[in-house]
Amino acid sequence: MTRNPDADALSRVSAHAVPPxxxxxxxxxxxxxxxxxxxxxxxEDALRATVGRAAPETLRDRVAIPxxxxxxxxxxxxxxxxxxxxxxxxxxxxRPWPDALGSLFARYVRDGDRATYERAVSDxxxxxxxxxxxxxxxxxxxxxxxxxxxxxxxCEQSTWSLPxxxxxxxxxxxxxxxxxxxxxxxVAGEIVAQLAVADRILGPRWDESWPGLRERIRHxxxxxxxxxxxxxxxxxxxxxxxxxxxxxxxxxxxxxxAAVLLLDDADRVARLLARALDSLDRYxxxxxxxxAIDEGVAYWWNGAGRMLEMLDTVAAVTGGGLDxxxxxxxxxxxxxxxxxxLGGAWYVNVADGWARSRGHExxxxxxxxxxxxxxxxxxEWARAARRPDAPVAEAAGGLPRxxxxxxxxxxxxxxxxxxxLPAAVWLPSVQVLVRRAAAGSAxxxxxxxxxxxxxxxxxxxxxxxxxxxxxxxxxxxDVGKPTYTAQTFGAERYLIRAMQSGWHSAPAPFGLEQGEGxxxxxxxxxxxxxxxxxARPSDRDAEAGRSAEFELELAGAYPxxxxxxxxxxxxxxxSDAGADxxxxxxxxxxxxxxxxRIHLIAGGEVTPAGDAVEVEADGRxxxxxxxxxxxxxxxxxxxxELDDPELVAVWGPRLTRLVxxxxxxxxxxxxxxxxxx
Length: 677
Prior knowledge:
With 677 residues, this protein is of the alpha+beta class. The strands form 5 sheets. Strands 11-13-14-15-22-19-18-17 form an 8-stranded antiparallel sheet, with no helix packed on it. A hairpin with a 2-residue loop joins β1 and β2 (346-347). α12 packs antiparallel against α13.
């Protein structure tokens, strides 16, 4: 009667450091969107005839990382950014470098803690980034030495891989890294690119005062990055034996940037580039035509955004020969986070994303690519985050991104703009709707609703869930990502409250949790209108004061008998008084009688108001009223006192679950949300 989940239900949310038994590793040449656009020009023979014939120094010049000897680049860099970096770097001096101890690395296996070790490594990287920029700006020996110390600290670190990613434990049972067989993960790619950019900037000074340091960088890069990249087909993120996600472009882009900056063999650079492009093509092939990222906006920056950075490097290294700006899916992916914007720092968040911007996103990236693709809305969206009194980028974003932003005079001089905030977005590949009253304004209510499957990257059980924002601020919320632990990407993932359907604004037939894996999915009954398929709701819908309905069949999300039905319909319109009004209607037809629950997750102060409830935060307020067709139904309130620092940073001290009790083999339930302020 009930469906069984796929045998590998956690396939997209597991670390998969090593191939499972019987996995077929296939590194044969792949043909995806890049090959369609570029053909054989992206293969090794062609790249050896172009990139391979260039002098290595010519290739390094093309990626436009300014050496310390290009004094104009550093003396004219954004003064606010430089002032902040110099002040923070001065605070670093005299302090010990953060310890990335073996006991911290081992905690991942011993007690599941991964954050403590990761923070130590991140602190090392951020300090080195500040030191490199301080040295480039001032040319002072103390900063050149500080940066050299940071390089040595990272080169002496036993591994550049994080314990949660390293394959030494699943492969050999180690709690420490296997230094004889380094694993190439996200942070190994980040570190090699950071060291390569540092070498490019400060190399001439290190030749004078630190002979041997640059050779050490190259030795470690060879051992930990270039050789594994060339020789290991079992690295899952290459796409040779499983689907890929943000890891693919994130690592590939850093590896290629480092290869261009560190290797003196242009033929080898061409060979590495060909391998990287073949792998990247597998990532592009998984991107849907509507540009949606199932990992959400938070991972766009380090997934699709990393892809754009890599494609920028490829265009530069090939002298414009391989240009991706005309590839349709690239243009749509570029628009995705702009389409998910609710207003200010708030975004529609799905999966392991956070609802509020962290403040150090590399905004220069979409600003530049909006210009490259002549997409004014993307450029305006990036400019909406530009503050003339704020840095152009942060050290937390990494040295390559910081240097790119510092070198971009147009971004430095960009003035703020109004965010585009599209009126209606419909992304059928992930079944996500975003709807607001009018384009270009966060005023009033905004609705974001989601179907999809429970086999998405960084999946949460969120089928049929929705968020409501007032004035851009989420009030009915998606909890998002807590601090990662060993549990996050393992068999016990869905024991984490934030990832359960019961802690999303979703129904619970018979009190059930949604199922795990691709067998559990929503089905679209009535699709709404919205870009990219259509720019706005039809004139007829506008005259009626509402968009087309969005209706989902959700029975397939739960372990219910075949033939059961639970339908949820979303309507966006206006109340009699003219205020924005959102209606969510549940209707069910089941083979058995029973008690059911409908959940809403509120972020803010929740106050009962008769049979209704009011939710308020940051001066925004909504009223929620529900009825079963015969009488109002008040909810019970369950408070979640938050103790996870990542969740507290977004939501404050608590979240509240509104629980509506309903029942019957058949029935209906309507929830109405109206803005009060």
